[in-house]
Specification:
19 helices; mainly alpha
């Protein structure tokens, strides 16, 4: 393995600036979400309040996602990222000022959470569509892998720092820090070159708004890619969502074992992302399809296991293999025409997002008739079935970077 790709990327001035801005923006968002959940958990009727916060965080993408992709294709993506960071920071400043004047109302917190999630509807696809502007085609997989490594590391760091920050600073001062991080992120992005695309001048009719969805349903590769990611995301959500129950009912260990498994999963995702970035992957479709077979086998082992040590190894391998989808997502960024890239990426994200509520329903239904071990075996079997279904798919097998 060679790390030349990462070195070359970090020597790329524009990429280094963009990565720095992304780190600050993502870290700020993560710190706010964790701090907000802790703050809400201390309010009256905590369970309902927490559920409400989680609910509104999903709403924007489902409600206005169709407009997000359209606007990303109409306006300069660099300017959109700057505007989003500025508006997000301003929203937190307003919340901080209100908090200093009076006691925070749950509805205000929900409104701010909704607004920040709304900003992310535009920000994330714009950032993804912008990457090919500053990165060479041969470095695209490495760039996305590096972003994945950084995001997983930020999840680990922000989770630890949020608890310390809340205790040491208080929620209001955390809001001030978050707003400052958003401002610095916007300043860094301002130094980057403009997006390649210019304003298209297309009318906001229904045909243009839904073009991303129509492109996915009419293009065989996009249609199959969405089908794989949507289905596997359901299985991932079930597999990761049952870790706590699995720890208690099957491994018969305490909360320390649960925490150890969760840390193992985070480390596996980080290591997998780093490895994918330094490997020379020419056929990302084949890699992802064979990864389904590997993940299915790992889930089957989890489903017949009652040893903590073996569970740690299996969850590490399962999380590590999550990264096998990164090369295909990199191919997606160059496969889709620039004029409709924002709409396709937003439509892709919105369709895949529906996997989370479906997985929650399935967990409830499966838990009524099966124990945790059988559910893992079931998920492993579905992974194996997906492998068989897509093994001979030309649209996936012939993908080449």
């Amino acid at each position: 393995m060679k790390n030349a790709t990462y070195i070359r990327l970090l020597k790329n001035r524009n990429f280094a600036i963009f990565l720095s801005g992304q780190i600050l923006s993502v870290f700020s968002d993560s710190l706010f979400k964790i701090s907000l959940m802790w703050y809400v958990a201390g309010m009256a009727d905590a369970m309902s309040s927490v559920a409400a916060v989680l609910f509104v965080s999903y709403l924007p993408r489902l409600i206005v996602g169709i407009w997000g992709g359209y606007l990303i294709d109409q306006f300069n993506r660099k300017h959109m990222m700057i505007l989003n960071d500025c508006l997000s920071g301003a929203a937190l400043v307003v919340l901080m000022l209100v908090m200093q004047a009076t006691e925070l109302d749950l509805w205000l917190l929900l409104g701010v959470r909704f607004f920040l999630s709304l900003m992310d509807v535009f920000y994330s696809p714009a950032a993804s569509a912008y990457i090919p502007t500053i990165v060479a085609k041969e470095d695209l997989i490495g760039a996305n892998s590096l972003f994945s490594v950084v995001y997983n590391a930020l999840d680990i760091v922000s989770a630890g720092l949020a608890g310390i920050a809340v205790a040491a600073m208080g929620f209001d001062k955390i809001l001030c820090v978050n707003a400052a991080l958003y401002a610095v992120s916007a300043g860094l992005i301002a130094f980057l070159p403009a997006s390649k695309q210019e304003r298209r001048g297309e009318k906001a009719n229904w045909s243009e708004l839904t073009r991303g969805y129509r492109e996915i349903f009419t293009d065989r590769f996009l249609r199959q890619f969405v089908a794989i990611v949507f289905t596997t995301n359901i299985l991932y959500t079930i597999a990761y969502g049952l870790v706590a129950v699995y720890t208690q009912s099957s491994l018969h260990v305490g909360s320390e074992g649960y925490g150890f498994l969760q840390s193992t999963i985070s480390i596996g995702m980080l290591v997998g992302s780093a490895l994918v970035g330094v490997l020379k992957i020419r056929h990302p479709g084949k890699v992802m399809i064979w990864g389904l077979l590997f993940q299915g086998a790992v889930l089957l082992v989890i489903g017949i296991n009652s040893s903590l040590l073996l569970a740690v190894v299996c969850f590490f391998l399962f999380a590590l293999s999550d990264a096998l989808a990164i090369p295909l997502f990199s191919y997606l960024q160059i496969y889709v025409a620039d004029a409709i890239k924002g709409r396709v990426l937003t439509a892709f994200d919105t369709m895949v997002l529906l996997a989370s509520p479906i997985a929650s329903i399935l967990i409830e239904l499966l838990s009524r008739s099966s124990d945790t071990l059988r559910i893992y075996v079931f998920c492993g079997g579905i992974m194996g079935l997906l492998f068989v279904v897509f093994l001979n798919s030309k649209a996936m097998q012939e993908v080449e970077i």
